[in-house]
Amino acid sequence: MRKFNIQNYVRYKEDVEKTIKKVKKPIDGNYTELTNDEIVKNFLPLVITLAMKQSTSDQASGVLSILDLFQEGNAGLVAAVNKLDRKLLADSDDQEKTIKSFLSKRIKGAIRRAVDMNRGDIRIPEHKLNEIRRNPKDEKMVSMFFNSVFSSIDDQPADEDNIAYQVVDKSEPYNIALLNMYLLSLMKQHCTPVQYDVLRLSFGLDCDKHSANEIAEQLGISVSTAHVRISQIKRDAIQALVDNVDSTQVLDYL
């Protein structure tokens, strides 16, 4: 997630607290007597709570900062309140629970759509993203992520004179240091120590890249075909990640 202005963040939270103190509260939990504007103001803290859950997860929020998530969540809150069915709300036994459930779903949807639209170069339709979220064991998605990310790290342009390599990439770049840290955390969870070191050294995730012979020497692998053994360990390590990582853990990087 992008860095954000801490002073603006603090100022926003203070403004919300002041607004909550001044706004009219429901009497005996009856929200039907409040105007749309008053309902929106009463539920501004809900937007902060839901946005914070999104931003502090162990996944990327693309180029959006926490302040952007607040803004998108507030837009979702206003849209949801405008669609509120007051007759159904009046018939509810617990109006606060009903309205909070109704608003939460739409606030989270607005934040998620904003993240989906700003995550990176690959655009996946929202219905497909929802399908993936419902099926966290989507091995094809995980395989695509790890094979593509490690291939891109290792790949070098074959022909510098090719016009394709001269096109300026104006897309928002990922934070490579953040991505490498995330990869290392997944590798620690799901790879053996040897697999972890081979991937780390081979792709230079927290150091300079090492050749197969250098890795073999450092890890004490003394075989005549060290490069073959190291390649096999790399394949096994990537397969271990594909087999054990949920698609939801890598979805936000696509």
Brief write-up:
By secondary structure, the chain is mainly alpha-helical. It has helices spanning 6-22, 36-42, 44-55, 66-82, 86-91, 95-117, 126-134, 139-154, 176-190, 193-203, 212-219, 226-244.
Notable characteristics:
mainly alpha, elongated, 0% strand, 254 residues, 12 helices
Describe this structure in words.
By secondary structure, this protein is mainly α. The radius of gyration is 24 Å and the shape is elongated. About 9% of the residues have low confidence.
Q: Quote the beta fraction.
A: under 5%
General shape: elongated
Number of strands: 0
- Main beta sheet strand tally, sense and closure: none
Number of helices: 12
How do the SSEs run, as a string of H and E? HHHHHHHHHHHH
Q: Briefly note the structural class of the backbone.
A: mainly alpha
